[in-house]
Design a protein that fits this description.
This protein has four helices and 14 strands. It is mainly beta. It has one domain (13-258): Beta Barrel (Thrombin, subunit H). Strand 5 (71-77) and strand 6 form a beta hairpin. This is Peptidase S1 domain-containing protein. Residues 1-16 form the signal peptide. Keywords: Signal.
Amino acid sequence: MWLSICILCLLHLATCMRDVEEIEWNRSAYLVKTLAEAQDGDRVLGCTGTLITPSLVLTSSKCVDNTENNAVVIYAKGSRYRKRAVASITINGDFALLEFHPIKDELCPRSPAPVRLSRLPLNITLTAAPWEKVNLVDLPEAKCRMTGFETVSVSNFSFIHNVMQTPAQVVRDGDRLIVDVASGSPVCWDDIGLPLECLLPNKGWTQVGLLHSVIRNVDNRTNSTLTDCDDIRVLVFATFSDDTLPTMLENHAVQMFVTTKRCFTQAPVETTERELIDEEAQTSDE
């Protein structure tokens, strides 16, 4: 109850989403779709996630019922898309990690091609802590954005590949961030897990959280189904402001450091001609 009251008090401070831009999926190829079998076995949970290493996707814990779920990740490959069966699932708090056989494509292409991994608040240095907790105090003043898939029909989620991007004005609510979408939003139920990115000093666009839940308009009694997104009014984002996510990533630390250095530092690890030939051969075999 107190959370709802607090959110209602803050809504007038938040700017509704606008200026929605359609972009090509392969220009934001870190964005993926996740499909997971529900615990009852009769439903499939469709969500959004981000590729953070060649073999890891980060999404919301609401997108998987348990660690034994059968799940699939759908990712962009040029103008096409590919699927990967999930081998293991880790859940902790608001977050879920889906691990699968590594993608062999080049995920850190040379500029100006876009990087195909989501950037996390990770430092590659021996003079600072590797994980930099997100400072929620500064984010309401930062430039932020959301990137997710267009929703034409919730039941058709896995077949729609148009990507939408929109600026977002965030408001802090405890350890979470909220965004008011009272004026209409492209965000829908299947966007749970989509990344919230903010422009951070010395890092550029960095994922600082993910969509974990939505709040609907409870006054609209005539529209109470989950197949319509028009009554969604508030987006609630889980943030990387504590040790939950880095604890989950501990067993993948080496891979995280290598991919972060390769993709996001000014002096990335160079790929030799032989490595490029090997990667192309591996890609053609997939």
